[in-house]
Amino acid sequence: MPKPYQSSVALIGLASLLVSTSACSNSPELSSELSLPSPTAPAVQPDPATPAKASTSKIDPFRLAIDRASSAYTISKSAQSRDDWKLVANRWRQAIELMKSVPAASPHHAQVRQKLADYQKNLAYAQQQANRPTAPNPTGVIILPPRAPQKQPTAVSAPIAAAVPQVATPAPVSSNRVFYAPIVRREGNTPVIRVLFNNEQPFDMIVDTGASGTLITRKMADSLGVVPIAQATVDTASQKGVAFPVGYVQSMEVEGAVARDVLVAVAGPELDIGLLGHDFFGHYDVTIRAHEVEFRERS
Questions:
Q1: The model's pTM
Q2: By the number of CB atoms within 10 A of the CB, which of 42, 116, 157, 170 ranks highest?
Q3: What single-letter DSSP state applies at residue 222?
Q4: Helices (H) and strands (E) in the chain — how many of each?
Q5: How confident is the model at residue 148 (pLDDT cuts 50, 70, 90)?
């Protein structure tokens, strides 16, 4: 007959095992497939020579690269200082490294080469902005009132004197070029000018001095063949968290002022005219007059 003391110990040990099993089943950090071994089957001891495989969640490097690219573009739309652009460049580097790690078996592998080329362009542009000298006037926007007509002086007869040869004083030569864009009309008192895209297609654009980036319409994007490479989430005057696809245009020109390989956002169907932002005229001092917009190169 077993001793009462030994039976109590066995019961206490069995109760401890049941409590431990219940606690493990309720722990959120453990797999739901964990179970106690069958009482009839012997426990299988792990082979010490075989290393245990760690349980890891499946990570999609392509999706992570797209997220990094979208983050870089979003930051670039409001970047002003050199530190801002260094952060943008770092995000593009992360996107490039993640895109390079996409395995050949991935269903997105066919897009990797094109996206790497686009991301490299973005990185080069961000590095260029991060290394540029700081301008004394970050906005460079000057709005002047309309010119008042000058009165012509009344001719006064004067005695004829002997002609004295005059030596012409040469005008000072400025290395900064100036471009003048006629204002074709105004939208809500904001000037609209003609912009030539890809050296062949002209479109009317609002000169938006408060926009950090250029925004084009869907019709313009279809006509120019813009290929979306990422998405940017921005807040507009009427909505918050609006997602815009972004892609490149080959060139944008305004009366001789040219910007190449510009990353633009494509608006929704509610926009029927594009917005020209600082990514085009950020290197110019802009003067808005009554009938024209002046773009003067900065020193």
A1: 0.45
A2: 116
A3: H
A4: 6, 12
A5: low
